[in-house]
């Protein structure tokens, strides 16, 4: 067989492995949200994903590793090892020439993240409270979400249209609070808001708090 054929087979196996991994992660996410992390077995994940339980063990090794993959891919939106602050949507928002333009892009991008992350937030808290090894997967330190919002605040302060005298700390606190998973769940899950309605509210609230002129 020539090298082209060998490479094609290798690429085909890699693609099948990727699709299998994605099915397992999607199944685990559904079950962890529905039943909780502790109440979900890997056999149940395998059944939901349509694979053998041995496949789950082969790909992930154990349930804690699978849990971490569920969380990481929910935050990122894919399995690529790219930090939020290096994501195109975040860089585009920070590069916006005006404060109002950055806030609109930032709310849109953060809303997409929250749509994936907010539903698993209660499950994450419960898992960390009952399994010390789960909690240890994310060492103590600054909240990663606050780190991201602080970086956005640093880009915002001083732009045309930003509120005079606005500090990075004050802007980061507002972004951190108004764009929280808890507030997102309150509106979208509990009050039945659409994603679009939440985004418009977030833009209005951020604009009123962080720009020189409140939104009309």
From TrEMBL:
Domain of life of the organism in this record?
Answer: Bacteria
- Pfam families the UniProt entry points to: TetR_N
Residues annotated to bind DNA:
41-60
Q: What is this protein called?
A: TetR family transcriptional regulator
Q: Which GO terms describe its molecular function?
A: DNA-binding transcription factor activity; transcription cis-regulatory region binding
State the organism of origin.
Streptomyces mimosae
Protein's UniProt keywords contain Transcription regulation? yes
UniProtKB keywords: DNA-binding, Transcription, Transcription regulation
Domain (HTH tetR-type) ranges: 18-78
């Amino acid at each position: 067989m020539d090298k082209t054929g060998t490479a094609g087979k290798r690429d085909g196996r890699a693609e099948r492995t990727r699709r299998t991994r994605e099915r397992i992660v999607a199944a685990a996410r559904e079950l962890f949200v529905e039943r909780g992390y502790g109440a979900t077995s890997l056999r149940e994940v395998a059944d939901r994903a349509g694979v053998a339980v041995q496949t789950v063990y082969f790909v992930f090794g154990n349930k804690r590793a699978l849990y971490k993959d569920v969380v990481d891919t929910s935050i990122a939106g894919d399995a690529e090892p790219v930090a939020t602050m290096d994501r195109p949507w975040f860089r585009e928002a920070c590069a916006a020439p005006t404060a109002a333009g950055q806030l609109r892009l930032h709310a849109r991008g953060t809303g997409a993240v929250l749509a994936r992350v907010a539903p698993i937030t209660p499950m994450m808290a419960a898992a960390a409270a009952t399994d010390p090894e789960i909690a240890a997967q994310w060492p103590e330190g600054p909240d990663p979400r606050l780190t991201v919002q602080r970086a956005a605040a640093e880009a915002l302060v001083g732009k045309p249209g930003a509120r005079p005298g606005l500090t990075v700390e004050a802007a980061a606190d507002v972004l951190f609070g108004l764009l929280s998973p808890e507030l997102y769940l309150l509106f979208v899950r509990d009050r039945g808001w659409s994603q679009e309605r939440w985004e418009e509210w977030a833009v209005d609230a951020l604009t009123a708090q962080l720009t020189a002129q409140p939104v009309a």
